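We read letters as residues; the fold follows as tokens. Both lines appear below.
***
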Amino acid sequence: MNPPFYGVKTVKSIPLDEIFRLIDTHALFVGRWQFKRTKGTEEAYQKIIKEKVWPKFEELKKSVKDDGIFEPKVSYGYFKRSQILNLELRTSNSEPVPLQLVTIGSRVAEKCAELFKAGKYTDYLYLHGLAVEVTEALAEYSHRNILRELNIPFDAERPLPAMARISPGYHVWPSLADQKEMVRLLNAGEIGVELSETLQMVPEYSTSAMIVL
């Protein structure tokens, strides 16, 4: 399989609407915003989702666009096996090995901290939840771009398989220390990302991954 290049590229101009359309709204509404059906009928629950949750979602998307607090950036690249020997994770022997790092920047983290400090916990919950899912949607966006560049077909109407994008510190790839190498390989500083002393990415709403082909 021939990649379009070996090395790293950064993408700093990404339309938010392209990312928003990839948001997992079920994960956002139920998991992040805690709109779970605990009692009542399914019809009543769906009425709440339609009349309260979807309008809040649309309102918040417009707000973050108007305020410019989401600044999506991607650093990604294709590597030979010999270039990633310092990573503990081993998949197949195929090449290239695609890696990616995405972030939505520091402004949203600052806004979330401001809301929390002011005791605006509901507003914080909404914005934090959206930021987490937008970060995941940006990772999906980058993943899809990599597949397109490699001429690998996928179903654009469905999310890509979860196990096709794996990150350091999770059960399949438990070595969180590998974040150091990911940050180095992907020139994370070019998109404003660094690691804390505890190997957490800063800004908070950032994530790295290896794409499993």
